[in-house]
Amino acid sequence: MIKGVNKQVLEINETQNGFFEKAIFFVKPEYSGMGEGRLKESARKEIETAGRPPLRAYRYKNDKIKSILKITAVFVLGVIIGISSATLF
Question: What is the domain partition of the chain in residue ranges?
Fold first, then answer.
């Protein structure tokens, strides 16, 4: 049950985003006096970033791949050194 809800709502119907057909924003009371144009522009900026993952996810994935490659290279180098030292003795 909802009582006494008084919120300004901004609805964007044309998101120009492949994932979303409509976006609904609930404006904080302290920003409700701001012009509609500024609110829409801010909402559009949020929609533009909604379709792509954060940059941190890409960095984490690249760091993980680099770590795996380093471990593999050290392992292969150890095997080569082990084989070469075994053939000398």
Answer: 7-52, 54-89
